[in-house]
């Protein structure tokens, strides 16, 4: 298999015992041994590989691709029994910056009149396009240089990568105020099962008849099953299960990224992502509250939420003792440099 792939694949291909063992696990408890590790040089490698896999499924039993960016997923989404496609070695670059105008309705997304999130004191929305293998720690240095941030970063932001954040619909300490990853995707370039890379971005439902068959099929699927889909939508603030088909149609807008975000690369493999950014607050304040009775927490939380806090964290004495107990292990896992950054 590896010799066949090398004929069209410009990047690296490795199947040594050391590499197979390394990629047999991510941050989850699972241990799944792959057959081959590939490091694509560019999007052409990705397109050619996806097309080749589609054409050779009958020849090689269980042939599949699992996308890998940093391997920090805790659900086993980055590991598989066939081909691991690791973007972190080469496809980790900044593509560029873009600006989108904002009208009275809020943000103006590509091809869509108006948006759903409002950013104050700005006539334009800043956006950044990167490859999926870029680590968030590098991404944040770039955005903070312009006073901007992607606020749905996770607690593991010092070690995770942008493609994984897209694949997991990442959320973190600021999600309470700013929302999840799905709220910050302006567009993405995605390679689908046919090996074709498509630019996926929101568009008006009135344009559906002009779009490719893939969009029409998803649209018709949703409309035929609208009642069932609406009733199946989980009534939760943060849904980590993926496949958010109920979010694809909203406010007369069709946005396939709402389905792709959180799907762990199973519906398509992303080669570029354009993120919406928001201004980083110049000043923040921290309030620490000590409770003698944890049963007071629900009432306290409801009162605090009225003030639209950026984040809200709570833990009991047993959780605190666990943190103290495993501080040394966390430091060893992250390395001292990233450990102290995480504490900061």
Describe the structure.
This protein is an alpha+beta fold and 344 residues long. The protein has three domains: 2-86, Uridine Diphospho-n-acetylenolpyruvylglucosamine Reductase, domain 2; 94-202 and 236-244 and 254-279, Uridine Diphospho-n-acetylenolpyruvylglucosamine Reductase, domain 3; 294-343, no CATH class. The chain has twelve helices and 15 strands. It has helices spanning 2-6, 17-22, 43-55, 136-144, 162-168, 175-178, 213-224, 226-232, 257-260, 297-305, 317-334, 336-343, and strands at 12-14, 36-39, 65-68, 83-86, 94-103, 106-107, 124-130, 148-149, 185-191, 197-200, 203-204, 249-250, 253-254, 269-276, 278-279. It has a six-stranded antiparallel sheet with strand order 6-5-7-14-9-10. A hairpin with a 2-residue loop joins strand 12 and strand 13 (253-254). Mean pLDDT is 89; it is low at 104-121.
Present the secondary structure layout.
Blueprint: H1 2-6, E1 12-14, H2 17-22, E2 36-39, H3 43-55, E3 65-68, E4 83-86, E5 94-103, E6 106-107, E7 124-130, H4 136-144, E8 148-149, H5 162-168, H6 175-178, E9 185-191, E10 197-200, E11 203-204, H7 213-224, H8 226-232, E12 249-250, E13 253-254, H9 257-260, E14 269-276, E15 278-279, H10 297-305, H11 317-334, H12 336-343
Parallel strand pairs: 2-4, 3-4
Antiparallel strand pairs: 1-2, 5-6, 5-7, 7-14, 8-15, 9-10, 9-14, 11-13, 12-13
Helix pairs in contact: 11-12
């Amino acid at each position: 298999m590896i010799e066949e792939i090398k004929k069209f694949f410009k990047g690296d291909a490795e199947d040594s015992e050391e590499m197979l063992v390394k990629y047999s696990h991510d941050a989850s408890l699972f241990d799944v041994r792959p057959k081959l590790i590939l490091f694509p040089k560019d999007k052409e490698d990705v397109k050619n590989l996806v097309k080749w896999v589609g054409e050779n499924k009958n020849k090689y039993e269980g042939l599949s691709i699992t996308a890998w960016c940093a391997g920090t997923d805790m659900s086993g989404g980055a590991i598989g029994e066939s081909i691991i496609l690791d973007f972190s070695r080469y496809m980790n670059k900044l593509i560029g910056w873009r600006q989108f105008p904002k009208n009275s309705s809020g943000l103006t997304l590509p091809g869509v009149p108006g948006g759903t999130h409002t950013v104050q004191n700005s006539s334009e929305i800043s956006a950044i396009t990167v490859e999926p293998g870029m680590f968030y720690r590098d991404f944040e240095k770039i955005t903070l240089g312009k006073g901007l941030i992607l606020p749905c970063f996770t607690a593991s932001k010092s070690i995770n990568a942008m493609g994984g954040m897209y694949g997991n619909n990442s959320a973190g300490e600021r999600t309470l105020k700013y929302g999840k990853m799905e709220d910050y995707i302006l567009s993405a370039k995605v390679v689908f099962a046919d090996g074709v890379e498509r630019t996926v971005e929101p568009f008006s439902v009135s344009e559906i008849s002009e779009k490719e068959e893939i969009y029409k099929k998803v649209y018709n699927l949703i409309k035929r099953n609208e009642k069932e889909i609406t009733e199946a939508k989980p009534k939760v603030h943060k849904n980590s299960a993926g496949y958010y088909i109920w979010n694809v149609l909203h406010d007369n807008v069709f946005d396939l990224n709402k389905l792709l975000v959180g799907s762990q690369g199973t519906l398509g493999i992303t080669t570029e992502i354009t993120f919406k950014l928001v201004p980083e607050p110049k000043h923040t304040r921290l309030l620490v509250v000590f409770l003698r009775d944890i049963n007071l927490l629900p009432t306290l939380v409801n009162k605090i939420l009225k003030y639209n806090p950026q984040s809200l964290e709570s833990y009991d004495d047993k959780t605190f003792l666990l943190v103290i107990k495993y501080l040394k292990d966390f430091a060893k896992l992250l390395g001292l440099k990233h450990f102290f950054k995480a504490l900061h």
